[in-house]
């Protein structure tokens, strides 16, 4: 790479990921607007539709969200009657997040979102799956590095 080229915007991994994430979220926005939820609320509900009745700490870990971000998000979802939070009877320090009936019913309305989003790209499904898998690998590597011994 030419000297100075490593600082060009188009050569930055972070910018490529940032720009891509923004554009992909734009594809989701109209469908999520139909449901009356934000993207962050959507991914939270996806996690709960996959596994309901989880501790807040586990949910935050699954979503890569800290408690300062997750707590207001959960309060908002609770205010929308999509989830409820309750103390774990076995451990009063732990709060369990559960879907309400309304939260479970929203899953049916959301079922077509992934396909509708994929249809708006011109990338074949196999390539999207490969890209998703590479992004998961990158996320895990970066997360492991930031949480491992080197981050001390």
Structural features:
152 residues; mainly alpha; Arc Repressor Mutant, subunit A; three-stranded antiparallel beta sheet; 7 helices
- CATH level 4 superfamily: Winged helix-like DNA-binding domain superfamily/Winged helix DNA-binding domain
Report the C-alpha radius of gyration, rounded.
18 Å
- CATH architecture descriptor: Orthogonal Bundle
Main sheet overview? 3 strands, antiparallel
How many domains in all?
1
Return the string of H and E elements. HHEHHEEHHH
- Find the structural class using helix and strand composition: mainly alpha
Through-space gap between termini = 31 Å
SS element count, helices = 7
Strand content: 5-15%
Shape, per Cα inertia axes: globular
Low-confidence stretches: none
CATH level-1 class: Mainly Alpha
* Number of E strands: 3
Mean pLDDT score: 93
The share of residues in helices is: 55-70%
Structural overview:
A hairpin with a 2-residue loop joins strand 2 (83-88) and strand 3 (91-99). The two termini are 31 Å apart. The mean pLDDT is 93. The chain has a three-stranded antiparallel β-sheet. Helix content is 62%, strand content 11%. It has helices spanning 13-35, 39-50, 56-63, 67-79, 101-110, 113-118, 125-147; strands spanning 54-55, 83-88, 91-99. The protein has a single domain, classed as Arc Repressor Mutant, subunit A (Orthogonal Bundle), CATH 1.10.10.10. The chain contains seven helices and three strands; from the N terminus they run ααβααββααα. The longest helix is centred in the first third of the chain and has 23 residues, at 13-35. The protein is globular. With 152 residues, it is mainly alpha-helical.
